[in-house]
Every structure is written in C-alpha cells, then in structure tokens.
Amino acid sequence: MLLQAYHENALFSMTMAYPYGTKDKNSNWLHWYSTDNRNIIRVTDSERRFKLLKKGNVSIISFLKEMPMSNHDIMNFKVDLTVFTPIMMSLTVAGMFKELKSGHKQPPIRSFLRTLIIVPAGSGYCITNDELHITNATEDQVKTFKSTPLPPPAIIVTSPSISSPVAPAVVPVVPVANAIDDATKQQMVQALATSSGMNLEWSAKCLQETEWNFERATLVFNEVHKQGGIPAEAFVK
C-alpha cells in the first residue's frame, strides 16, 4: 500500500510555476496546482507556509488522491541518487506525464521534479520528506515525450495522482550476514581495508553496518569519506 511508503510523521509540499518566458494565458493553465502552491518566493507568510505543508502519511495520501488523473511513461523518468548512507537516502525523480480529465481540449503534458528523503523502517524503508514541483513541459520536452517508443502497456501507469508511480514501496531488506561464514567475513574485512585504506577495526564496522554487503560497504565508504565524515583514527594502523 502507498500509505506504508510514508512515515507516520512524514512531510509533503508541492510547488508549481510556469516555464520561464511563458505567460499563464499562453500556456496550459496550472490552476489546480496553484491553490496548494508552497513556492516560498510567492508565499511569504510563515503561517500560510506552515499550513501548506501536508503532515503525516494519511494527510499526504489524501492529498495525492485528490490530484488530477495522470498517465505516466516511466521510460521518461530520470532518477538521481544524491545521498546514500546506512541511515538515509536522498533521491530525485524527474519526468513527464499526461494530465487527464483536466478540462483542456488536449491533455497537457506536465513536467515534474520530485525529491524524496528515505530512511530505514523496520525491515524496509519509508519516505520522511517529499517535495514535488510541477510545471508545463517545454516544446522540446513534449517532442521527446511523444517520440519515445511506447513501452508495454503495463509500464504506462494511470493513477489518481502523480505520486503513485514514483513513490517507492516498502522494500524488504534481506539480511545476508547469517549466510556468510567467519572466514569469508575476515577476507571481506581485509579486502575492504586494502581498498579503502582503513584499518581492520573500522573496515569490520563498515561491513557490519551494511549487513556484510561488500559493494554497499564500498559505496557507503566512498560517500561518507567524500563528505569528510570518517575520523582520522579509522586510518591508523
């Protein structure tokens, strides 16, 4: 269920704007989205900014269900994982969708950008923060959308909201530590110590925190080290 994809105290906000250089009257209007537009450049009142936040998974899902019907082609989606640590992931999803039953003569093509903060929850993950920006697709984007080869019907997603196709479901984490014997673990510790430059103690900690997944441990090390988050003692041998 989509409800389970969100933390019970999750926050959601939506912004909208017309593409630069276009005017409302010359574009496919975005009136539906303007009511809950939390663009802080336009919304300067702090109380209204607070009210426009959707708080809690029930409130978020209720709002998403009210959004116009839409038809998504996930072949146009672009996903960028910007942060990955054992305790948090941040990713952005960009793409286009066709808005249905919106009162336009021709269903408009919209462009969206979505930023999700995801954290571990139980045996899976959940969203704690969701920011959605919607605008009209540019002429070049519309051409790209229309020229994309149609995928199998199952990939075209029709939903009552833009959220359903892109919100990650709760994905079980399959622990693998119990399937690895001690000798193999020692080899993994030595290999990580060699490739990362960390000592054996910190290499073991990194592998333990990533459920003895060597590829994930390497990725986590690279990300945290790049941000300067690993203390000097980790490299003392």
UniProtKB/TrEMBL annotation:
Domain TAP-C: residue ranges: 183-237
UniProt subcellular location: Nucleus
Signal peptide interval: none
This protein's UniProt keywords: Leucine-rich repeat, mRNA transport, Nucleus, Repeat, Transport
GO terms under cellular component: nucleus
GO biological process: mRNA transport
Alphabetized Gene3D superfamilies for the sequence: 3.10.450.50, DNA helicase RuvA subunit, C-terminal domain (1.10.8.10)
Principal place of residence: nucleus
NTF2 domain residues: 1-134
Pfam families: NXF_NTF2, TAP_C
Key word Transcription present: no
Family: Belongs to the NXF family.
Protein name: TAP-C domain-containing protein
Organism expressing this protein natively: Cryptolaemus montrouzieri
